[in-house]
Amino acid sequence: SLPPLLQGALSATNGSGVRLVLPRDDGQHFVLSTGALSAAMQTLDEDLMRATESEGRLVLENSSRARTILDISKSAGKIQALIALPLRQENQYLGILWIGFDKPHAFTETEVNFISTLASQAALAVANAHLYESSEGGRQRLQAILASSPDAVIVTDRRERILLINPAAEAIFGVNAQTIMGQPLVNVVDKPDLVNAIRGGTQLNAPTQVMLADGRTMFASSSPIKSADGSLLGQVAVLRDVTYFKQ
Prior knowledge:
The chain is α+β, with helices and mostly antiparallel strands. It has 8 helices and 10 strands. Helices cover 36% and strands 28% of the residues. The protein has a 5-stranded antiparallel sheet, sandwiched between helices. A 5-stranded antiparallel sheet has the order 7-6-10-9-8. The model has no long low-confidence stretch (mean pLDDT 85).
């Protein structure tokens, strides 16, 4: 979604270049840019990020007035005017969106408001990307843990449909996760007392022992998954093969 925002900012202002700069954890920057002067503008990225993070929006209509605020000579005289806006989401500084001009430029209120709107949209897109990256990283870690766990794990939703089943559970029930996802629990597990244990139907969700048809003994425990307001979202059940200990 970001390239169209940059192109829109450039077209609406008749700017010479536009850059979106996001600091990364490794000290480098993620940059998107377009326009004839976008490469020359790079020399001002660091200074503008520091200025906008502490002071907010920066508008310079003529480079001759910039000396007390910004060393604009770093651009070798190519940048004569600029507008830079911080990207923020929930008070978190994400980076900047800024537009450079090759000659002095008088910014109208309409231009400033439009660019501010684009900056807000860019900040939202960046924040969503960060959230996705964080949740995807967590999902991959969880997937690795579940895949390596010797215990069977089954997660169901509030309507008792299968949301997740790990390889250990697949082996116990002789099923394939891809084919049973979304199916009712009773269609996958045909033993009533085990279904009851997975549902959390035992008193206070206390762990229970269940004997399988092949003689194995499973130690089953279940916990509810609740939302912030306390409503039930589903159940997570863990089944441990305790046959060896029973023997």
